[in-house]
Amino acid sequence: MTNIAAARQGYGSARAPTRSEKSIEYDILAQITRRLKTAADKGPSGFAALASALHDNKRLWNVFAIDVADPNNKLPDALRARLFYLAEFTHSHTSAVLQRKAQVAPLIDINMAVLRGLRGGTE
Question: Which one-letter DSSP state was computed for residue 17?
């Protein structure tokens, strides 16, 4: 292999397109949602995995809340308000799930709805 060929091979991946923020958000939310569903499907034996997935889901929704509360966020105000409300609901409902007073299904449903929205709005 020549030096030029080696350089092309080594730096070829640098020309790969950069992922959008929506794409990254989608992937993270999808991964957490799968973890929530998998753990919930295991029933009581999956509670430790469910608690871990709930923690990560809550952290992600905190990031979403901070992002939509930023006055420089370019989303429409009505959408920002709905997303902030969902973050608040996720926070309180997560606590109820961890106390075994509520089911995880509403959190999965919310995540799935947001995933559909992100998929519809990606490039």
Answer: P
Q: What is the dihedral of CA 94, 96, 99, 101, to 10 degrees?
A: -140
Run of H or E including 79: helix 77-98
Domain boundaries of the chain, sorted by first residue = 20-120
Return the number of other C-beta atoms located less than 10 Å from residue 54's C-beta: 24
- This prediction has a pTM of 0.81
First and final CA of the chain: distance in angstroms?
37
Q: Which helix (H) or strand (E) holds 106?
A: helix 105-120
Tokens of 52: 């871990």
* Nearest Cα residue to 51 out of 112, 6, 96, 17: 96
pLDDT digits (tens, 9 = 90+) for 17-75: 677 888 899 999 999 999 999 999 999 999 999 999 999 999 999 999 999 999 999 99
**What is the rounded CA–CA span in Å between residue 108 and residue 110?**
5
